[in-house]
Design brief:
InterPro entries: TPR-like_helical_dom_sf. The chain has 450 residues and is α/β, with parallel strands linked by helices. It has 22 helices and 10 strands. The strands form 2 sheets. It has a 6-stranded parallel β-sheet with strand order 7-6-5-8-9-10. It has a 4-stranded parallel β-sheet with strand order 3-2-1-4. α15 links the parallel β2 and β3. The longest helix is centred in the first third of the chain and has 14 residues. The chain is globular and about 65 Å long. The termini are far apart. The mean pLDDT is 96.
């Protein structure tokens, strides 16, 4: 099987067969860079980061400027707690005059939580290329990652700009979007504004809180474009948001996206932190599922958990199943597994499923929200599950990497967006064991003094 066939298996998430075929191909051609890179991706997807790191190192010995291999190596080093090794490889990457490449390299330091170094490097990029919107956007995300909210948000606005769309998002032009209608924070009084679903479902759930702000600014109509009907019930609970499945046939004065809402409305309205701004829709299936869960729980507390994501940018966020074992040993908790795909297969193979309840992979977002609404709390990584649970007002324990995504503003324990979300953050890069240890303490009821 050749590299293209193995790549196809990887894209189909058939990781076990892809790994087998990649190993066989590498035995015949051990220094093939393409094969080594695909093998690294396959192993990273299965959270086998030591093997992936070995493959990336072999690539970079042959091709020190292999950007994709360097990115994959940084992900491995973050998970394995090896920031110094990653820094060494970043420094060995040849100097380039490309502002995009320079911004990417600064971002790699951000992935390692080396924020001072990242901001210093990126500030120099922006000084040399002041009109590059991607550079200013990158600086903004790094500043917010370091907790510099005001400065960061000012630079982040370059992401939500027509200039960014023209230079870096030509796909939107090609798909028929009128860039001149992209909203840049101007008055919406009496206007209709459409929110496109750029980003993930969690992004839409998080930033639809700003629909209220648009209404306060006098918007006549606010359209929420969402092609997936499996989340329509939840989004329709957002006051003043008209959920539509297609934008064709709808007239609107401006269009934006969840990140544009954040960029222009957070400086004016703040984080708009609130206990609840979405409501779980009713679901007979979810109600029956919860009844079954409660019967299996036999009086124990029912808490949802999600620890893995296979999205492209989630490699540093997922937690190895073995590290979570102390949580599954807590005696008074019945765990409700809100997991899919590879991680769920691994969980079932471990035998732990006999003492937990697993929510069907066929559950819609609406069904999931209805189930979560009836749980005591949710433990989750940085994924849509965190936003869904927090937006409907449930307590969330957020398992967080030391290198947090920019939107969490470098907070250690409390989310700026969700008052009932507790951040449980790695003390150092790669230290998920301390996160789990702290969670065990937080989830263990305290007995009052007699």
């Amino acid at each position: 099987m050749n590299a293209e066939d193995i790549t196809q298996l990887y894209r189909q998430k058939n990781y076990a067969l892809a790994e087998k075929e990649a190993k066989a191909a590498l035995r015949l051609d051990p220094n093939n860079v393409h094969l080594l890179y695909i093998y690294a991706l396959i192993m990273s997807a299965q959270m086998q980061f030591a093997a992936a790191l070995g493959a990336c190192s072999r690539i970079l010995k042959q091709e020190p400027n292999h950007a994709y291999a360097l990115s994959a190596l940084v992900t491995c080093c973050v998970q394995l707690g090896l920031p110094d090794l990653a820094e060494t490889h970043i420094q060995q990457f040849s100097h380039t005059d490309s502002p995009t490449t320079q911004s990417w390299l600064a971002g790699l330091y951000g992935h390692l939580a080396m924020y001072d170094r990242a901001i210093d490097n990126q500030s120099k990029v922006c000084a040399a290329h002041p009109d590059d919107p991607y550079g200013r956007y990158t600086l903004g995300t790094l500043q917010m990652s370091a907790g510099l909210v005001e400065e960061g948000m000012r630079n982040y606005q370059h992401h939500a700009s027509r200039n960014m769309m023209r230079v870096y998002r030509t796909d939107m032009l090609n798909n028929g979007w009128d860039i001149e209608k992209y909203w840049e924070g101007q008055s919406v009084a009496g206007k209709t504004i459409l929110i496109s679903p750029m980003g993930g479902y969690g992004d839409f759930m998080q930033f639809c809180r700003y629909v209220k702000a648009l209404k306060d600014m006098g918007a006549a109509r606010i359209l929420g474009l969402m092609g997936n009907p499996r989340i329509h019930g939840l989004l329709r609970s957002c006051a003043d948001l008209e959920v539509i499945e297609h934008h064709e046939g709808h007239e609107f004065d401006f269009w934006t996206d969840p990140f544009g809402l954040c960029a222009y409305l957070q400086p004016r309205y703040g984080f708009m932190s609130q206990d609840r701004y979405l409501t779980a829709p009713s679901s007979d299936w979810a109600h029956q599922t919860v009844q079954t869960i409660q019967a299996r729980a036999a009086g124990k507390r029912c808490i949802g958990i999600s620890w893995y994501s296979d999205t492209a940018d989630a490699g540093t966020r997922s937690v190895p199943l073995a590290t979570l074992l102390p949580l599954f040993g807590l005696p008074d908790i019945h765990w409700v597994i809100m997991q899919r795909g590879l991680a769920l297969d691994e969980f079932r193979a471990s035998g732990l499923d006999q003492m937990c309840s697993i929510v069907s992979e066929d559950a819609t977002f609406d069904d999931t929200a209805a189930i979560v609404q009836q749980l005591e709390a949710v433990v989750s990584i940085d994924s849509y599950m965190t936003h869904l649970s927090a937006a409907i007002g449930k307590p969330v324990y957020f398992m967080a990497s030391r290198a947090l995504d920019w939107r969490h503003m470098n907070n250690e324990t409390q989310s700026p967006w969700y008052p009932r979300t507790t951040i449980v953050r790695q003390p150092t890069i790669g230290d998920w064991r301390s996160v789990v240890q702290q969670l065990c303490t937080l989830l263990t009821p305290t007995t009052p003094n007699a």
